[in-house]
Amino acid sequence: MAAGDKQICLCFANYLERSLLPLRFICYTDSDFLNVQQPIRKPLSACIKHVFPNTLADSKCSLNQNIEASIKPKLSKNFEKIIVIRSAPNAINYREYIRDTWKQTFPSEIPVVFVVGKGKSDDDVESEAKEHEDILQLDFIDSYFNLTLKMMATYGYFLKHSTVEQFMVINDDTIVNSTALMQYSNEMQKGENYVIGKVSRGYPRLFMPWLLWHVPSTMYNHKCYPPFVQGSSFIISRKAASEIFKHICDFPFVHLDDIMMGLVSNCVGTSLIHREGFDHHFLNHFTVFHYQYSRYSASKMRSLWKQINHLL
User: Which residues, by range, are in coiled-coil regions (predicted)?
Assistant: First the structure.
């Protein structure tokens, strides 16, 4: 499929998703899946059974296994916070855009690392990594249906190889207001179990198979999702990442990473903390700007950065 056709399909999928918003009124009647302050059920096994009444976890699940890194970033031995930018192997233009723009607004003691999986050809990634020393490439195929794997592999790597206390996870097609993000980051204490971001509640499972975010009933058969944090940008503590990584294979698999993390979080007791400005698609008062209805080009992101740079 040509790039233009893909863009048309993506825009059409987003239009249909927005047209399904009336279903959210139905989801707001499901009290079990609205609370963000306590687990849906206790103990953990009862919660999993309630969320997945007719599905069993995959006995061959390997999401909680450490994945080898073929390229490692150059990092100091001790850092408390890290900015993890999820990128694709061929998204060099987006990484260059970030290096030239909002990355420079963060304190130097906070490393900024681009995480990618394997692509069709990784020669360019290798040369880019040698030049910038800010890429972590993990040994799995980077694809849309490996988003959950990508997130778990990222947690697993840094939980094993660092003492980091807080991850700031960002997509590469974003603009970050470093002042606002650091303000939210600094509110939290070590050892707490939380995810901060845009908390979505009353969100329906998209049942039309041609939609990009379709999840079949055989994978998850409730009509609504529990609260979850939108995946384009969030802050997660080491405690929360560790709990999710530890228990991810106790759950049946869902390929959408933010939905999967929300399902696990709601059962293991992770606090989902809503803060304004995450996944924000207006160029005012944002923490992380992200246009969710299409993927802006890297040149478009540079242009937007120039428009708002004086405000950050």
Answer: none
Q: Please, what is the average pLDDT of the chain?
A: 88
What's 242's DSSP letter? H
CB 155 within 8 A of CB 265: no
State whether residue 279 is helix, strand or coil. Answer: coil
What is residue 57's predicted lDDT score, i.e. its pLDDT?
95
Residues in the chain: 312
**Structural domains of the chain, ranges and CATH numbers in brackets:** 43-311 (3.90.550.50)
Pairing of strands 135-141, 112-118: parallel
Binning pLDDT at 50, 70 and 90, where does residue 77 land?
confident
Using alpha carbons, list the distances in angstroms from residue 24 to 19, 21, 40, 235: 11, 5, 19, 26
Q: Would you say residue 11 has pLDDT above 60? A: no
Band of pLDDT at residue 87, cut at 50, 70 and 90:
very high
Please report the pLDDT score of residue 310 as a whole number: 64
The pairing of strands 288-289 and 228-237 is: unpaired
Q: Which token pair is 293? A: 């209805």
Q: pTM of the entire structure?
A: 0.89
pLDDT of res. 12: 47
Q: What angle do CA 103, 234, 196 make, to 5 degrees?
A: 130
Own/partner long-range contacts of 65-69 (Cβ < 8 Å, ≥24 apart): 65/156, 66/153, 66/156, 66/157, 66/160, 67/138, 67/139, 67/140, 67/153, 67/156, 67/157, 68/138, 68/139, 69/136, 69/137, 69/138, 69/139, 69/157
Quick check: 47 and 41 in contact, CB under 8 A? yes
